[in-house]
What we know:
Layout: H1 2-23, E1 25-33, H2 40-60, E2 63-64, E3 67-77, H3 82-94, E4 99-102, H4 106-119, E5 123-125, E6 141-143, H5 148-161, E7 168-172, H6 176-191, E8 196-201, H7 210-217, E9 223-227, H8 230-242, E10 248-251, H9 260-263, E11 273-277, H10 283-300, H11 308-325, H12 330-338, E12 343-345, E13 348-350, E14 363-369, E15 372-379
Helix pairs in contact: 2-11, 3-4, 5-6, 11-12
Amino acid sequence: MQSKLNVIVGAIAITLGGAAMAQDAVVKIGHVGPTSGAIAHLGKDNELGARMAIDELNAKGVTIGGKKVKFELLAEDDAGDPKQGTAAAQKLVDSKVNGVIGHLNSGTTIPASKIYSDAGIPQISPSATNPKYTRNGYKTAFRVVADDVHLGGTLGKYAVTQLKGKSIAVIDDRTAYGQGVADEFEKGVKAAGGKVVGREFTNDKATDFTAILTSLKGKKPDVVFFGGMDAVAGPMLRQMKQLGIEAKFMGGDGICTAELPKLSAGTLADSQVVCAEAGGVEGESKKSLDAFKVKFKDKYKVDVQIYAPYVYDAVNVMVAAMVKANSAEPAKYLPVLAKTSDYKGVTGTIAFDAKGDIKNGALTLYTYKAGAREQIAVVR
């Protein structure tokens, strides 16, 4: 009799357990970044930011529309390559993700955004800064950082007014990001009354810059701006030193990383580099960001590179819209996401404008001293 009772109790337990599991709705969130290739350290940084958010949401036991949900992260590698980026986007669409965080680079984010738009899947980029991303009219495209018009323009003005640059050279890597930020920098220089003495280009896989640097050296630049990523900027800085070019070196968020001193093989002079991160916090918000960085290092045993906190916020903003809409269905929560007006994240308050851009986006200017990044100012 006892054994029969045990069987019945066991069957009831299995049934109830199965029912509980059945009630846990699965919500799939995609993340895409370059987790292989020269800037894999940046892609992994972004992915870890997403994983931290997902882990915390699952630990909290979030309910959407009265049902407890389990979040799953579907992580894809685009290697910073536009073709691989669109393939990754299509894979996520085929996997029926509820939303996407990514991509990291503008060159992969922009072509992928059409695929997400066609599928009606919301996409929040934590780091793509090319203005075109939110100017294609896609209702599914959002970003949580300022764009290159703001970033490049601010750096251009800074080069003239603060660094007192008289002869400014510009180099870009011909990617959507690098060329875009360099164009806006050049406009900013000219608007501030500065002079661009040379414009050269390379590519995002290059390692030898002798020819373009020798050409620029003859023009005696006191500021050199590079539109591109840290994996190229590091060797470029080394070769500038070898050629005796002692100009200030400027760049956007792509070079503004914790890895830059290592990538330049320790050739950085104190305060030689001025770069900007498309984001920034002050006061109470800075405490939240600093606390995030400590928590991140405790969890993953590595420092934040750049955009992990923005990825973390992007995941949480997306989920907050799902909760508010009582649905994780893209068509139902998308209008709520678009109306986000006062989400308090670790990177500050997030609100989207009609294009999907962040309102009142900040920039943080940095330099490097003794091999470490040091904040100069936050500007809006």
